[in-house]
Amino acid sequence: MLYVLFCSGMVLLVSAGQTMANQNEDDMVIAESEADAKARAVYDPAEPVNRVSFEFNDGFYHVVTRPVTNVYEFLIPQFARTAISNASRNIKAGSRFAGNLMQGNIKGMMVEPAAFIINTSFGIGGLIEVVKVSDYVPPQDISSGLASLGVGDGPYMVVPVAGPFNVRTLIGSIGNAALNPICWLESPDDIIVNTGDNINGISIVDAYDELTKDSVDKYASVKAGYSDYYRKQSTQKE
C-alpha cells in the first residue's frame, strides 16, 4: 500500500506560478498552514506512535523505495510498465464491482464485468486496455462502498512499510485483497504482474518528493493529503 501514500500526496500539490521569490514563500506558508489545519481535523489519537511509524516509512522510502523505483524505471520500458498496470487494473474488477454493488450503482455493476470480459478476451489478458472503465464510471472499491453505507473514517493510523490508513480504508483494503485473484493464485505470471504493479504504483514517487520537500511537518502534510484523497474518492458517484 505504499502507492496509496504517494497517490494521496498528489492531492496537495499546488503550482501557483508566481515569479517573485517573496510571493512563492508566502504561498508556501499558506499551503503549510492549510495542511496543518486539515491534519488537525483528522482523528489521530495515536499520533505519537504514528509519527514513529511515519519516520520509519520515510527512511524506508529513501533507502529502498526510491532506489528500487529508479532501477525499475530504467530497466523496464514504458510500454511494458503500462501493460503491467493494465493487467493489474483489469484483474481488480471484482473489488470495483463490489464497491458499485454496495452503492447500488447499476451502471457500474454493468460496466465493470463487461469491461473485464472485453479486456481479458481482446486485450491479451488485460495487458491492453481496450475499454477504459474510468471513461464510463468513477473508480470504486470496498472502502468507498463502506463510506456509502455510512461507515465513518475511524482513527488514522500509519502502518510500517504499508503506509497510512484509517479504519475504514484498512478494512476496505483487506476486502479488496480478498477479491483480488493475485492474492490467492500465486502462479509465476501472477507474481510478475503483482510485483510489477506494486512497483508501478510507487513509481509516482516524484509526487511524494514534491509534497514533502519544503514541508516543515512532513507527517502533517501526508496525513492531510491522504485524508483529502480518500474523502474525495469516497464521494465519487455517477
Short description:
This protein has helices at residues 2-9, 21-41, 47-75, 78-91, 93-103, 106-122, 142-148, 167-178, 188-201, 205-212, 218-234; strands at 156-159, 163-166. It has 238 residues and is mostly helical. 33% of the residues are buried.
Comma- or semicolon-separated keywords:
two-stranded antiparallel sheet, mainly alpha, 238 residues, 3% strand, disordered N terminus
Describe this structure in words.
With 238 residues, this protein is mainly α. It has one domain (2-12, 41-234). It has eleven helices and two strands, in the order αααααααββαααα. It has helices at residues 2-9, 21-41, 47-75, 78-91, 93-103, 106-122, 142-148, 167-178, 188-201, 205-212, 218-234, and strands at residues 156-159, 163-166. A two-stranded antiparallel sheet has the order 1-2. Helix 7 crosses helix 8. It starts with a helix and ends with a helix.
